[in-house]
Design brief:
heterodimer, A: 245 residues, Rossmann fold, 4-stranded antiparallel β-sheet, 34% helix, 28% strand, globular, B: 10-stranded mixed β-sheet, 12 strands, elongated
Chain lengths: 245, 363
Amino acid sequence: MNKKRITRKRVVVSVDDLQMVYQVGKVEVPALRGVDFTVQEGEFVAVTGPSGCGKSTLLHLIGGLMRPTGGRILIDGVDISSVSDVKRTEIRRRMMGFVFQSYNLLPTLTAQENIELAKQIQGTGHHEEGGAREILQLLGLEEKMGHTPSELSGGEQQRVAIARAVISRPSILLADEPTGSLDSDNSRMVLDMLQGLNEMYGQTIVIITHDSEAASAADRTIEMRDGKVRKQGQNVLYAMEEKHL
Amino acid sequence: MFKLILQNLRRRPTRALVSVVAVALGVVLLLVSLGLSYGQLMDTAQRTKGIGGDFILQPSDASLFFALNSGNLPVKVQRVIEEVEGVGAVTPILAKFLGDKFHLVFGIDPESFAGVNRDLNFVAGKKFSGPREVIIDTIYANSKQLSVGDSIQLLGHQFTVAGVFRQGTGARVLLPLSTLQELNGTPDKATMFFIRAKEGSSLEQVYDALQGRFENYRITKAAELQAMIMDSTPVFKQFVSAMVFISVTISFLIILLAMYSTITERTREIGILKALGASRTYIIQLILNESLLICVAGVVLGFGLTYVAIQAIFSAFPSIPVTITLFWRVASVVVALAGGLLGALYPAIKASQMDPVRALSYE
């Protein structure tokens, strides 16, 4: 259950008439056809929609992994669609955390090393060795910290991936189908974890999902279709709680 | 980063090992080939210097590689040289290269030779006293298992070993000048003269005097012998350049191939690193450091294998000198590392430029 107090804060993500057209040979394939929305600090937003509606493209654009063909994305007021690759990488390093459907842990490193590497890349110091250990303890993975991904279950891998994504306290956590490869028990555990991060630490989260249960864990749902936002609104439970505040 | 590099190498041990061995072979090739050629040249220079004297007089077109020269200087020139101001002692030497045994023999006149040479040090026996006697150096004696009193076959004739001298003076085998002149078909001829200046005289003045008197001859200062041999060796510089080029190329190609295949296999990992915010510089450093580690391991293994190869050469051919100078040790490290880093540069840049979204969806 959501127990956080909702206080409207600054906008951390602002998507303005966002367009993305892929060039496939000589054919132009539009993926986003003018998407607009904002995400406020501390919000948990789920983007839903059928396959091919442009959800993943949207997430990659917000994360600065690609440059849009039109429109703007402001992250904390900085237009990442017009900055250089180097600057986008720097913003990604400083402000973003990614969680993927297929976990994407580095297979040669242990759980702890995966997290420490992220800290090192993000420049938050690998000297604070307690960080990785601490977060794995919190996740109940203390005994698995020396295990490589192949020695972990899907749920465990995704929990490590979430730990890696938030170890440097990013402004925004972006999750692409985080429960897409998990059974219901593990999905619930991962969603609880995301909700916990959002409630306890005010972590801003944007997830892409097909899963209605995952979407219902969010404060707000943005439904997409054919590269556009079809509708968006606050989840009932969340809206009810907000109303009572 | 270091952990990631180590784990990547451990994950693909065969490729890592093959790369290390290939870099090592480049190092071995460079060190052994140059060690052998330098060894031969320096040994020639040192043994020539070991004859003693301050100058060598030869015909104008003669080489400092005595094996290439014929004996066409009249021995009576010795008297003319002795008359030059400042000259203390002169000895004629006839050099003969024995193709079947692949070494030089010198014909010497013991009396005048003793006036020029002061270092001939016998470890067994004494100098020859008859026309069919020879003296041999310690390396030749050891390699052929010869000792005083034994017989050896030279130029189709039997000779008796009269003495064994410490190596470092002239050829490995010395025999009477008159005997070699006769067997060579060049009576009263010598290949060169070794000249010692009088005690206390100025070497420059003696050299000038010799130049003045023998302007159509080649006169070499013993002090400059080593440098002159290195410089005058036919195609030696080209040989060195070729060896360096081959060694660099081996490191370059092997590391290029290894790193190119590694970044292809690890495309997804590179995508993950980029998603985590790794900069282009970080990715380039990752690939370059991995190749650096392979090269360093290759250099260490290469040094070890070079040592083994040299020991094997010494045990099979004890008379073959091998000299690996500090310069070439350092150069082999630089060559291996430079080749490896250059080879890794293209894959590293390619990896750093990967599109993170495509890399993340790579299967």
